[in-house]
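Handout, page 2. Input:
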Amino acid sequence: MPTILDGRKIANDIKKEVAFKVTSLKDAGKRAPHLAIIICGDDSASHTYVGGKINACKTVGFDYTLMQVATTISEEKLIQHIDNLNQDPDIDGFIVQLPLPDHISVEKITGRILPEKDVDGFTNQNFGSIVTQNPLLLPATPFGIMELLKRYEIETKGKHCVVVGASRIAGAPLSLMMMQQGLATVTVCHKYTENLEAHTVSADILIVAVGKPGLITADMVKEGAVVIDVGTTRVDDASAKSGFRLKGDVDYDKVAPKTSFITPVPGGVGPMTIASLLMNTLRAYEMRIS
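Output:
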């Protein structure tokens, strides 16, 4: 039977560690770290994710500011909000919740955030710092995955890691981190990769971040592999109270018996991303006051 990589448990452990540090700061007469979040529009999924981040801030004792703007906001006005947060000495870090409306350039918006306040780790400087091995603030989802592997004492050095998906948010930075920090041999697969199974079946560590439910089937996974499922897609489910359920990129029920370790969806990578956001915010705060 595989070991379930319990992201909720590890994330709760991290929250306790962060909360202890925040309490120590307050006891020393210092203010709490302050996270700001900008969200555009009324997308229910985005609001759910933001709600989880706000609850995490409350749990650890962070101050937080939520800025909700209309989907019709101009790119120039959104940039003005970002500039204000960049200049605000009481804001240690902030995020702009994705996705953004089609008329707004994600690259232009994320590039406007000061790297030292970029707690999502999306700016070019924070992305590039993975290669130079001098990280400022690491991309949150890959940071969470690396932390999960570390806390479960999963060996990565010299292992063959296959990353399916090459997005700027997850796959691309994670492949660099597995190579630079994990010292693994890394193969990156993407939508143009031919014969995907030939690559995935050779993986000691298989990480999938595509957003295609059930993409990875049992015949695509090596016996005893470690499987990390980053995919989180809402699938209609009339039996669920919400009317939907979350499904990962891995066919969990059939793949799990072949693995040594595997993340569930939900409850695996998702909570670790939020935990990483907290760790980044605390680090941003410490850099600002040091």
